[in-house]
Amino acid sequence: MWWVFIVLLVISRCGFSFFLDDVGDTLDFSNAIQKDYMKGDLLDGALKLHGNSSNILNPNNIYEWTPITNNLIAGGRDTFIFDIDTGTTGFGIASTYEILILLSGSICKQPANAQGSSLGVFYSFDETLFGNLSVGNLQTFQNGYLQALALSPLESKDNNATSKYSNLYVVVTPVNETTGQPLDSQAAITDDPWEYKMSISENDLVYQWDSRSWLQVLDTDHNSALLLTGNVSAEADSHYNYSIYNPALYDLYVFSEEGSANLERNLNLSICAMMTGDYLVSSAISQESEGHPLERSDLAISKSITSRSGSVREQFYVTGLNASTTYVAYLTKKIGKKGNLSHDGGVLFSKETFRTQSSNNCSLIFDLEFCSGVAYSVPTSSNSFNKTLLATTFDKYAQSLFQNFSKALQIIPCEMELDARYSPLRTCEHCSSSYQDWLCAVTIPRCSVTQGEYHIHREKSANRNQFINDDIKPLSDYYEIPPCIEMCYYMVRDCPSDFGFACPSRDNYQDLFKRSYGYYDSSISEITCNFIGNTTDLYLTASKE
């Protein structure tokens, strides 16, 4: 079983999208078993080319990375030959021992009565496979997804490493999931076909599935939602030939709850079924807005790159939604041969669910110039329903409050020698950043229309500060998600004692604390407080409490 170690090493080097902890489940090749199947005749299926078809010379061949698309009914069969090329393998140290040939696929559609049957893929280096399926390994599509591995040992000839085998032979046919026997056309209940895509590569799985959602729902209001990917800079390895600041890398597809349920029933691992399904809106086809995304009201998705929470991420702003409605989002990611992004294949992440708020008492804003960390719903102004104007009004007020602090900070000896500074570990930049995060959070309240255990009820005329009473004039009463006390702690930690900053104690000043702050608790699913800043600090602080 030494090759298992090599497979794991290869997966870790090549950036497959599954967690390595899940390799035993997601890369389960134990189902690729040999059985004593009935001999069959060679039946050539009609091949629909997908990808760079100008390079396809033989319709029975399947070429490196280039997917094929075809339809099959019970009793049908497709046959392919893959030429093994030692020079194109992308697996580094593993190629010293053997060539790893990766098969992957995705079912786009399947018969309505497909229970108990699936598409099976038989593969072998033995060309007699076309006449005798028993010489091959079998891997079936599971929940619309296929992944399989074939290993071709290397042989040394004239100081050159060559593959022991020249070709991989592949047969695709509908099979009984229990017995593995190919389905008989006479036993077919319907003529509805399986529509599938399949690819073979020596470099990567062309079709991939990731058990993570890789999405974070930042917030929603009554007609929009803001979602954020994970840290894309963490994946930007040197062997990738693309920029992490390219918003074309990821796309978002939003389904209704019912539409998602139909997909999850049988084909929840299929990127093809998802992309061709009954989604409501997708960033892949949404037109870019000429103005600020906050001004959009049509059903669309605006995407952009943002630096938030101490990392680079891609954000999606979904507009034109209905109030009090549950939606399901799916994220996809482009991949490519040796780092060059391809429109073929890709990664499908697990679903992420979100729900819009019930009324327009709160408005979602983001991308503020000064308070760039603000990306949540705030009290809607009765003066105007323009979200851009609301965001600008809050932002300019917070910036005006920062000016006096900025002037006071200038008299602190920040550029002195290390032993003459107020702290050997913190600088004035740390202080300025922590104060700005705290100021934005306490000046721009996070709003919800739902009562929660950790929320503070605010009457529309009795807000956190007088500016909101006089200038914002909230449309209605709302519930405030209070700022996290941790931001106050960081400000005290990072700034000179000359400022006299202090935070209320949860134990000694419980009433003051509850009227002003909340605290982060990762063990509670409900949002307990509103945090702006580097979330790494927040998680570290919470782990010590």
Automatic annotation (TrEMBL):
It holds the Pfam family Mid1. Gene3D superfamilies: Frizzled cysteine-rich domain (1.10.2000.10). The keyword Disulfide bond applies. Keywords: Disulfide bond, Signal. GO terms for biological process: calcium ion import across plasma membrane. Residues 357-495 form the FZ domain. Residues 1-17 form the signal peptide. It comes from the Eukaryota. GO terms for molecular function: calcium channel activity. PANTHER family: AEL197CP (PTHR39142:SF1), MID1P (PTHR39142). This is BN860_11716g1_1. It comes from Zygosaccharomyces bailii (strain CLIB 213 / ATCC 58445 / CBS 680 / BCRC 21525 / NBRC 1098 / NCYC 1416 / NRRL Y-2227). The lineage of its organism: Eukaryota, Fungi, Dikarya, Ascomycota, Saccharomycotina.
